[in-house]
Amino acid sequence: MKPHLSYSLIGGFLLWSSSLFGQQTPAPINAPGGLIPPVETNVLSRTVIATSGTTSGAVTPPKNLTLATDTLPTFTAEEFYQAVLQHHPIVKQATLLSQEAQTQVLQARGAFDPKLLTDYAKKNFGNTLYYEKWRSGLSVPVLPGGLDVKMYYDRNVGKYLNPENNVPPTGLLNLGLNVPITQGLLIDSRRNTLRQAQLSVNMAEAKQLDLINKTLLNAAKAYWDWYQAYQQFRWLEQGYQLAQTRFLAIRERNLIGDAAAVDTTEALITAQDRLVQLQQADVQLQNTRLLLSTFLWSSQSDAIPQPIDLPATVVPQAAPLNQANQIQIQELVERASQRHPELIRLSNRQQQLTLEERYRRSLLLPKVNLEAMLLSRGPLPAGAADGVNYYGFQTDNHKIGIDLAFPIFLRSERGRLRQVQLQNQQTGLERQQAGRDIVNDVQRAWNELAALERQITTQQQTTANQQILVRAEVEKFQLGESSLFLVNSRESKLIDLQVKLEELRSKQQKALASLWYAAGSNVSTR
């Protein structure tokens, strides 16, 4: 009866391996209802193989080896991206860029704040009041025309007061304007600074978007590297379990004299080789989990983000299929040409330089400021009104001043203007080149994505054909027309093809993330 039991074990194993490698996606080793249950990890370590003096050994899986299973919860890519967007420190740092730019706008608006002022001077010597001068008032800048509305109250007394500072006993009220006639009428340093600060907000938002997109690109690559390592581990684990089970079956046949010792040796070598590959895949899987954990943070409101580890009980999602067909390349190129963060940044930088050039050009004009003030005596005490309006606000009571300045050679102004013009030209050329590079990057990323789609289709067909070959080889082995070496070779090739297929799927998802990044977007907000 022993020979029948041995053949039954081998036949059941071969049927199980044929069924397994006929699947598109590997089933878990410990899935219920399997024909052969998983072999305990210490079975082979308890077995001593006696052969023809050439082989004696055991295959012992490491105790801390990761186990792949479909029963674990799935951590989807979208959930991962949302976690990065909400909690990653670099994303939070990016949101501060816009706030920092807003503070620059606030500082620039400070140049238009109304100002209260006072000026007091007094000289008393030898019991004689030489003079006592006091001026207080309010200056209000007006944004549209670069004007300054001024209101002053002067009260001056003293024995030796300069006649031009003589004012009525009740003081003198001044109300008027300071108007730039030429230089500074259309644009001045205050308006130039404010408008450039407002453009800086757009540049900061573009930089913020680019930083977020780059972070999500790196996160996407880390996620799909984890996916590839996980799928590779699953397939190698399946292959190792097959080799381990085959070794036990061949060993039993050898013990009853129904199989040659060399077959036992070959089965052992195959199990040992696949165990080494499995151990390497396990290390790679752990490392990709660590890399993925660098993007996982926990934060609440304004609290400092705290790093968290990827739970050991989660697995990646399956790779989506045929995503390239859902993307219109022309729409993507047009979108990149209009909304790419780098183009937005360069466009706003060019606008800043255009404003600066306009301001520097205005400095070539003569500086002529006109100050006109209406004058009135101060209010009389109660009961002292004389009914005379001669000293009140009227056109005859005024003060006018003109301030004129004009450098003869204008070398500083002309040099700075030429410098800004050259910077503006450089930025324009840089923007043209950046636009071309972005279009080419999008096209290149699209070509890679489309090529990967075709490669995946071909790889799927190759894998299906290899599955047919494995099943045929198993059937020939059952009939005694094949060897264990050929069965192992067919299985190893199938495992390699399955791993290659998952690698292509991982590359496809990373290529998709690169495509969206090249277009100025990201995989989460596309």
Give the SSE map.
Blueprint: H1 2-21, E1 74-75, H2 77-87, H3 89-109, E2 115-125, E3 128-142, E4 147-157, E5 172-180, H4 189-255, H5 261-293, E6 297-298, E7 306-307, E8 315-316, H6 329-339, H7 341-362, E9 367-377, E10 398-405, H8 411-478, H9 484-518
Parallel strand pairs: 1-8
Antiparallel strand pairs: 2-3, 3-4, 4-5, 5-9, 6-7, 9-10
Can you put this structure into words, describing what you see?
This protein has 526 residues and is of the alpha+beta class. It has a domain at 2-101 and 196-348 and 430-518: Outer membrane efflux proteins (OEP). It is 55% helix and 14% strand. It has 9 helices and 10 strands. A hairpin with a 7-residue loop joins strand 6 and strand 7 (306-307). Helix 2 runs antiparallel to helix 4 (189-255) and helix 4 runs antiparallel to helix 9. It starts with a helix and ends in an 8-residue tail after the last helix. Mean pLDDT is 83; it is low at 1-58.
Please outline what is shown here:
By secondary structure, the chain is α+β, with helices and mostly antiparallel strands.
Based on the model shown, name its key terms.
six-stranded antiparallel sheet; Outer membrane efflux proteins (OEP); single chain; 9 helices; 526 residues; alpha+beta; two-stranded parallel sheet; 55% helix; 10 strands; elongated; disordered N terminus
